[in-house]
Write a structure and sequence with these properties.
The protein has a two-stranded antiparallel ribbon with strand order 1-2. The chain has two domains: about 80 residues, Alpha-Beta Plaits; about 70 residues, Alpha-Beta Plaits (2-Layer Sandwich). The longest helix is centred in the N-terminal third of the chain and has 21 residues. The chain is α+β, with helices and mostly antiparallel strands. It is built from six helices and six strands, in the order H-H-H-E-E-H-E-E-E-H-E-H. A hairpin with a 6-residue loop joins strand 4 and strand 5. This is 4Fe-4S ferredoxin, iron-sulfur binding domain protein. Keywords: Iron, Iron-sulfur, Metal-binding, Signal. GO terms for molecular function: iron-sulfur cluster binding; metal ion binding.
Length: about 190
């Protein structure tokens, strides 16, 4: 098929408009709020090193990992994100072929921090028992729970247990401990 100048310009114009639309919605930029699996290196290194092979996702016995979508940013697309209760078995770090996930001790894991959405929380306390670190407690005299950021690992067990729709608790990448790749290699 021979491409005419007019067809070439139409295709180029459509590509530019599409790229501008994705850029306007943030789809091309990296989303710093993604919660990564335990042992993930610093975000910029992680996005560079991750092969998008999904070995970590496939090996997770809890099915706590999923693939990031294009809406999470072009550079994040198909990288692993934590979406459900992680038991810190560390199997994901053992199968990562690129070094994007490095083996760490479970007690060193800090993937993020849970945040209570006060307007959604009904004070049912269903998130307290599943929390493996005791980071969630009842606010005395109120129908609300509280998260201790120092104890929270960001494992998302509380999110998995929340019966409210939409969920009344979310985990953000805030407070995540992630070494730079050079430190992870040594």
């Amino acid at each position: 098929m021979q491409v005419t100048r007019r067809t070439f310009l139409k295709i180029s114009g459509a590509a530019i408009v599409t790229a501008a639309a994705f850029g306007a919605t943030g789809a091309l930029s990296a989303n710093a709020e993604l919660v990564r699996p335990p042992g993930a290196v610093a975000e910029a290194d992680f996005r560079y090193l991750c092969l998008r092979c999904h070995q970590c996702i496939d090996t997770c016995p809890e099915k706590a990992l999923a693939s990031a979508h294009l809406g999470d940013g072009w550079s994040n697309a198909a990288t692993p994100v934590l979406v459900s209760g992680c038991t810190l078995c560390m199997k994901c770090t053992q199968v990562c072929p690129s070094g994007a996930l490095t083996p760490i001790a479970p007690q060193a894991a800090k993937m993020g921090t849970a945040v209570i959405l006060e307007n959604e929380c009904v004070g049912c306390d269903k998130c307290i028992k599943p929390c493996p670190t005791g980071a969630i407690s009842k606010v005395p005299g109120k129908r609300l729970v509280l998260v201790d950021p120092a104890k929270c690992t960001g494992c998302m067990s509380c999110v998995k247990a929340c019966p409210v729709t939409p969920v009344a608790i979310k985990v953000t990448a805030a407070g995540a401990k992630r070494p730079p790749f050079s430190a992870a290699k040594s």
